[in-house]
C-alpha cells in the first residue's frame, strides 16, 4: 500500500472558535495555525488531531455552505470524521468528555 494513513481533511465552518474549543476540549487537539490562508484570504485553522493527522478548517466570510450542514446525513460531501482513539482508555475519556 502506498499510503500510510490519513494526513488531513479540509472542511468549512461558520464558527472556527467553537470548532477549536470542541476539538481541544474533547480530543486535546493542538492548534498549529490560525490565521489567513494567504494575505487577505480566508481564516484557516490547522488542528493536529493525531500524531500524523490534521484537520484544516476554513472560515470564509460570505460563504453560506456551513449553514446548510444540518440535519445529520444532509450535510453535503463530508458528513463527519471518524477519529481513531489511541486505545480503549483514551476512547473512554473522549466519551466522558
**Overall strand count:** 4
Portion in strands: 25-35%
What topology, given as strand order, has the largest sheet?
Answer: 1-4-3-2
Q: Give the proportion of residues in helices.
A: 10-25%
Average of the residue pLDDT scores: 85
Spans where pLDDT lies below 50 across 5 or more residues: none
The biggest sheet amounts to: 4 strands, mixed
* Number of H/I helices: 2
Outline type = globular
Distance, first to last CA: 35 Å
> Structural class, please?
alpha+beta
Radius of gyration: 14 Å
N-to-C series of helices and strands: EHEEEH
What does this structure look like?
By secondary structure, this protein is of the alpha+beta class. The chain has helices at 16-27, 88-96, and strands at 8-12, 30-36, 43-50, 53-59. It has a four-stranded mixed β-sheet with strand order 1-4-3-2, with helices on one face. The radius of gyration is 14 Å and the shape is globular. The N and C termini lie far apart (35 Å).
Task: For this entry, give a set of tags.
97 residues; 22% helix; 2 helices; alpha+beta; 4 strands
Summarize this entry quickly.
This protein has 97 residues and is an alpha+beta fold.
How do the helices and strands line up, and which of them pair or pack?
Elements: E1 8-12, H1 16-27, E2 30-36, E3 43-50, E4 53-59, H2 88-96
Parallel strand pairs: 1-4
Antiparallel strand pairs: 2-3, 3-4
